[in-house]
Amino acid sequence: MPMSRSYVKTIWARVKWLAPVLAFLVVLGLARWDAPLYRHPIAQVDAVRVTKQAAQTDNLGNRDQLTTQRISAHLLNTVKRGRRITFTNQYSRSGAMDSKLTVGSQVFVTAQTGGYALMTRKRDGIVLALLAFALTLLVMIMRRRLVMTALSILANIGLLAVTLHVEFDSHQATAFLLFAGLAVAFTLVTTLFVLGITRAAAIAATATITATAAGVALGYLLFHLTGYKDLHLEAVKYVTQAPQLLFFVQIIIGSLGAVFDECTDITASVIELPPGRQPFAAGMAIGRNVMGPLIAVLFMIFIAETFTESVLWLRNGNAISQTVIWVMGLGFAQALVSAFGIVLAVPLTSGLAALAARKQVRA
């Protein structure tokens, strides 16, 4: 007895969400056979033999262990495909800058006098598989909107490349103006691709640019009045000719996305309200709901950027207070300035959206 169409649709609705997993597995499997696409020599490990192990302890008591492996492998590409080679691999138990090789591992090698030497592991499989997983999931969720979102990302990448090229040629003479203009261009391009040429797009773009600029200006005034106390821009991360510039540019670009997300949410919700509702109050209520999570997310992002360096400082005998001030303090400051923009965006967007909604009702 043939299955009914509704039954088939029900089964497909349940099974289709396995498509991202299937895409992940297929691409991961195919990547094992893509070595001929590379010009650089790639080898697959056939046998591993440990030749030496040595314990290490530094002057701060950090312990590690170095292991030397003798690797037998065969080439997977180039004119010497199939040739048997041997080389050594040294890895640490901590795995900070190296990794252990096992049978089946694929690695990039380079030819040297008398043999080959290891360069790095071949990791395209997991990268491409994760990309396939993400794209499949995006197609299933976003559908037609994915094309516009992808075009927006590509356009923003192009804008960034052009800005960096101009900035390098100008030797930082107009760097702040360039990156401020880049932030405005990011907002306008993203708004046009995502929302189109609409009244909501104009409100979201205006509110995003204004709130971000006001937040950064307020942060700059606060830091200037306090003399940048406990903000060590001379840290290794900002060793450039203009560390202050780099610090504020990072804040602008980092907070722009969160402010834009908040402004679009408020605008879209207020514009769609039925007549008779209070649009400004509704926008403020929506802003209060999304403001907290956005600030928390930005805070975690900025702190996460300093986490590895903080661990390094602590492992090298620095006090917690010194580590927080010199490393994590910059993350706290960036999150604070970004929070200014997120908070200011709520009444600003609510006011603009309410004004637009009232004009729409009158029309």
Average pLDDT reading: 83
Percentage of β-strand residues = 5-15%
Oligomerization category of the chains in this entry: single chain
Rounded to an integer in angstroms, the radius of gyration calculated over CA atoms is 27 Å
Uncertain regions spanning at least 5 consecutive residues: none
The count of helical stretches stands at 9
> Which second-level CATH architecture of the largest domain applies?
Up-down Bundle
Name of the level-1 CATH class of the largest domain:
Mainly Alpha
The largest pleated sheet is described as: 5 strands, antiparallel
> Span between N and C termini?
59 Å
- CATH topology (fold) name of the largest domain: Multidrug efflux transporter AcrB transmembrane fold
Domain module tally: 2
- The tally of strands reads 5
Structural class: alpha+beta
Question: If strands are numbered along the chain, what order do they take across the biggest sheet?
Answer: 3-2-1-4-5
